[in-house]
Design a protein that fits this description.
It is a single chain. Helix content is about 5%, strand content about 55%. It is mainly β and about 120 residues long. An 8-stranded mixed beta sheet has the order 3-4-7-6-5-1-2-8. β1 and β2 form a beta hairpin. The longest helix has 4 residues.
């Protein structure tokens, strides 16, 4: 069973958008939205507060699940480096550091894509 079927109450709509990223512009890295995507979010926050009592001692790993038909591509390798996710509720932009493909083990059909994200700072362009 697909995670979207298993956890329908966990689906977030109208908050997360995916877009392309353009690096090395005069004003830095720019994000261009391709639209909103329904996602399921799994977030983990770690802190090394014994070494740094500031926000620098805190790291966040966010895992997003998305349906393949709502994405611009299904090829996992295309997303790393070329796309960012944007959480419009917090106005935080995320770099994609890892992509997984969730397949139905019986049919081989891609049921969802998994994106491991790290927060970053970009400007909407």
């Amino acid at each position: 069973m697909d995670v979207f079927e298993a956890f329908p109450n966990a689906i977030i709509s109208g908050v997360w958008e995916i877009g392309t990223v353009l690096r090395g512009t005069e004003s830095g890295t720019k994000f261009s939205s391709l639209g909103f995507v329904d996602v399921i979010v799994d977030e983990q926050v770690d802190g090394a507060l014994d070494t740094s009592p500031s926000a620098e001692g805190v790291s966040t790993d966010t895992l997003l699940y998305a349906l393949p038909e709502s994405l611009p591509k299904v090829a996992a390798a295309a997303f790393v480096g070329g796309y960012y996710w944007h959480d419009t509720e917090t106005d935080t932009y995320y770099e994609i550091v890892e992509v997984g493909v969730g397949k139905n083990q019986e049919s081989g059909k891609v049921e969802h894509m998994e994106f491991k994200l790290k927060p970053t700072g970009v400007k909407h362009g």
